[in-house]
Amino acid sequence: xxxxxxxxxxxxxxxxxxxxxxxxxxxxxxxxxxxxxxxxxxxxxxxxxxxxxxxxxxxxxxxxxxxxxxxxxxxxxxxxxxxxxxxxxxxxxxxxxxxxxxxxxxxxxxxxxxxxxxxxxxxxxxxxxxxxxxxxxxxxxxxxxxxxxxxxxxxxxxxxxxxxxxxxxxxxxxxxxxxxxxxxxxxxxxxxxxxxxxxxxxxxxxxxxxxxxxxxxxxxxxxxxxxxxxxxxxxxxxxxxxxxxxxxxxxxxxxxxxxxxxxxxxxxxxxxxxxxxxxxxxxxxxxxxxxxxxxxxxxxxxxxxxxxxxxxxxxxxxxxxxxxxxxxxxxxxxxxxxxxxxxxxxxxxxxxxxxxxxxxxxxxxxxxxxxxxxxxxxxxxxxxxxxxxxxxxxxxxxxxxxxxxxxxxxxxxxxxxxxxxxxxxxxxxxxxxxxxxxxxxxxxxxxxxxxxxxxxxxxxxxxxxxxxxxxxxxxxxxxxxxxx
Length: 484
Ligand code: NAD
Fold this sequence. Notes:
- By secondary structure, the protein is of the alpha/beta class.
- The protein has 14 helices and 20 strands.
- The N and C termini lie far apart (77 Å).
- Nicotinamide-adenine-dinucleotide binds next to helix 7 and helix 8.
């Protein structure tokens, strides 16, 4: 088998197998070939992972932040050195083309590890004078954190969650998506080679029930999930029962608004990036593209020409620009949304069919125009290369329509009028927004959603408050003034 790991899980510094766990086949989405067979974690393994994390964390919390940081920086360097081999594994696991995995997935993960290594030693408390007495605050780690990942950016997600957790003195037990379980195991190996004490980053495999067992365990202080809104509701509720901290990175149906003074070529490029990158399987995608009526025809003409040039094919081929969807289930889901869009009366501009280059789960880059706000395509997250173009007349109208959704992950505005850009962005209900750009998510910038799209933020200084808690220390400097 092409990508069989040493064992399914990585616990307390070593690979671990327990064949009693449910069988999980890992499939290369470009061909349907089984590339690895893993087993879900049994309750005994889940217990071992949490116990070793708790033990390791108690010591890790006492380390000087610079000493923790040195290990993490080494891990980031190792990821960069091994990027070609890691990118190939990510491509096998997800089906995303090497053109993407070489530059986007592990490199962004390495950035996060390096960033939080640098940030951790600068995290300090405050001193609050009270006359003679005073209070000082300590920013303490939370303890054992659980990370649960989605399948679209599996290794990046593992890095984005573990980097702040570990840098700030926590341990993490990470459960990758059962669809893409391989990258997180490599991260666990790299951390150990970089010198991270055993038990601080454990990986356990499994489907929803394994995630649920982790999220409800009494030893767990925090749960960070990247996944869909329905899963987010369940995990948030499970965490709430134990009054645990949460970060919820959930789905979206984000608006990308193009005013008629925008550069058409730039706006088309951004709309394509925001709908076709990773075959459309990106949470923050701008899947409702609102185009002002004055440039609609020019926009659609340019979009059609450029979309039809996208090279679909074997994701391991360096020339391929778009690979397959991650699974047969995702292919069926996306094709059914395309059928619904046709039935509901949207105009197909290009695509609409399965890619024919391979036996894998390919879908052509697809654009529908004349989409209206009530159509299913404008309301539900598709998670495939399917762009909906909607018309609009003026600013107030488009802002109201852009906000008319339960989601609030991201939004973008294209215009040459910068005062308008800032005015519009100020009114959009979204956690992450772009002006004359789309889908750039540097680790320095906080990322996350509002409304149903999530709670908390990953990356940037904002993540510090989600992986630490404040302790206030009151210091009495004089005699105790008791009334008794
Ligand atoms: P999903 O919700 O099906 O699964 C996410 C993870 O949750 C998986 O590991 C799954 O095994 C686990 N899980 C499922 N049920 C669970 C339960 N009851 N308790 C605990 N864990 C459980 O999502 P997916 O299909 O893997 O990923 C696609 C979704 O993720 C999309 O909706 C996308 O928008 C979202 N996403 C969000 C972000 C973000 O940062 N906001 C990033 C990437 C993906």
